[in-house]
Amino acid sequence: MWEDEIVAVRDVPGIHRIPLSPACIAGMSILDDRTVTLADLAVCLGLPPLGRDMPARLLLMSDQEKVAGFVVEDRISRIEASPENVLPMPEYLKTAVVGSCVLHASELMPVININALFGRIQKADREPAMAEFVVPSAAPTDIESVKSVRVFSAGQQVFAAPAAGLEEESFPPGRITKLSLIPPYVKGVAPHDRKVFPLIRLAQLMKLPKAGMESAMIPADLSGAPFGFLVDEDGGTQFSRDFTIEPLPPLAQSLWVPTAARHHGALLPLIDLGMLMSPRHSDIGVPLPDRYHPDSQFPDQFRKEEVVVAEFSLLGARHALPRAEVEDTVPFKPYRSVPNVQPIVAGVAEHKGELLPVLDLATVFGRRSLAQPEWKMIVVRNGDFRALVITESYYGERRLPVDQQRVVPIVLPHSVVYGCYPDKDVVRLILNVEALAVHFDLSLVKSFLGALSKEMQEAPAEIVPALLPEEYMVGEPVVSATVPKGAVAIGADTERLKAEEAAPARQDAEIRVTEEARAETEQAELARREVEDQAGADDAERLRQEAEARSRKEAAEEQARIAAEAQALQEADERERAEEAARQQAAEEERLRLETEERERLEAEARAEAERIELARREAEARSAAEEADRLRQEAEERSKNEAEEHAAEAQAGQEAEERERAEEAARLQAAEEERLRLETEERERLEAEARAEAERIELARREAEEVVREAETIARAGDTEVRGAGVSEAGEEADAEERVRGSVAAETAIREVRREHELPAAVSAPRSAITPAADEPRPKKSRLIAVLIAVALIVLFYLLGDFRKAPVEHAVREEPAAAAGRKVPAPKAEIEEPLVLKVPKGTVMDTEVYEVRKGDTLWHISKRFTGNPFNYPRVAKDNKIANPDLIFPKQKIRIMFEE
What is the pLDDT of residues 174-186, one digit of tens each? Predict the structure, then answer.
């Protein structure tokens, strides 16, 4: 509380308890010669009252009012609080007397509005002020807008919640401040991000069977209100690609658990935290009975025609369902429990792609099933109602004739039981699963306990745990002694059941008797209640009179006691004054001690804070120095790296240029080779064409020569005849004969030459006998025309022969350069390179005078090895006129020399 709101802090002279006074009144005391009433501050805040023997002090609020102030424990200290450390209390926990907190030494201290509390006491408003525990402006979450969820575990179960409003990181709870008059699921408050966060125990709020570790706090902002949700483990945020949202069946839905998120195959109930934190909204929604529309025909068929039921085992006893409502039986499958549902709903499970509620009908009989893997599940359908019913075993179908069908002679609401039928010495119930699930409550269970079979009542608790508290349990129903052990009494005696089985025709009459008996029973019950009400009124009057007498007696005793106390006060006044001085001295010493301790504590905290600041400063300086050293080192490394990259880039560029030049040279050589081949091909084709043309000319000449020869022979034969007839002179004949012989020889020689050169067939040349006459034959006379024709033929042949011989010579001449170009010219021998020179400082110890470059060496490494400084490589490159320092080759020689 604020110091300026209190008039004074004083010692309590003595408190006298007032009988029958409210708990918030500590008693009466004499203060400054006036009697005042003192209030107990702890009780006004909802805390346990101050002990009678505990030392106390008075917080004086008024010098004039009848109620002077509040009594507190004798432990009061003073602290300084800066405005930034005063934090508002969240609306969820704010009350009329506690509206803010002070953050001191990482701990929250609620600030009491002492003036408001004093005003409530003066107005006799003695009930402690309480918060509303409601999130302002809370509204259900729009599931369509959920794009991410937060996965967490609470109560050893995994859940999910919309991630909107939740901080990304979770934190340990830290120092927790307890508060009074808060629900048990609120653990207290803790500071975070300069706000006051109520710590909500999710497992306890959701009424989970196990509490969990609550080792992490997930900060949240719900409609502007801060909350810290305590969970066992934070699973982080999952986005829409990692999960899907599915609606829960109506039986498993609630306002704050309407859907479930499927994440990696697991089904996680999706918690609407805003609705969870606003319990006053929990009743909003469509009533459960209006969300299902059953359409079973069994009630119309029962007791009118033969029906078929399906029998199953429950708590060791056999029961039945209408066969038409049994859709299928499946092996027992794991299910996921869902919070905030009726006990009959064990959870939800997937069946053929649909989420169905899993029902445990044992809860109808006040028990719970401990399912085993070998059990089964019955798929029940009634209209749009579908569910999985846990059963120990499934026995199959059974037909019930009309004479075996019975009504249940007990009044049960909502037709939760269709009827019953006898089975040897017991009676089996036909259950309406839809009505049992939709209208389930504890009163229904209490009504049903009267219909339990003995084996179910006697089932051991470790097999079927009890659902109801002991006050709801009833004893065994009374069974006739003539009924064998194990028979069931369901409100009708065994004799009537036997009579019904033996005489079905009397059934209607017995029903009327039963109804009359029920009416009589109801009238008797009404009369009994009236008698009890009358007796209760008499008892109330008697008790009132006794209370008045007791009050008068207590008032008289109280007056006597007050008088005795007043006398004792007067007698003890002197003694109290003496004791008061000693007490004041002791109180002053205690106050000084507390002030000294507080001052020492504050000084220690100040020293610790100064040391922490100094340590932080030193750490910051060390961190800055380390960062500066790292920066310089990184800059040096970056420079070295950049230089190395530049050299590597230059080397790469040089290598690429050489490769490009080599590629260009290879391309030029390839183009030259291709051009040479093209020219050779063209030349070869031209020569082949010329040869073909030449062959054609030769063939034509041969034919012309043959034609000329034939004409010459023809003319010769004609000339001989004319010569012999004309009688030419002997001298002329001799000259003509010589000319003819020379022409024949020349013609024959020309023909042989043509044959030899061109491989003419032998048929081309004329027979020698046709050209040269026999020696003994007289030589015919030739005319000048024959000589001219022969001469022309010879001239043509010699001309053609000269052209033909000249072409091969030219061809050979042309091919000679090409052949010479095709021959490989031996490469000139490589010049012997001079060794590179590396100058080192004088006095450097050298292990060799000439270093041979190895594969992988660079001028950087060689400079570092011999000169001690790798950055000398540019000088080495410059001294040796190396354009690219990275282009050195293995087996190059480097002469090591001392600098001049």
Answer: 889 998 888 889 9
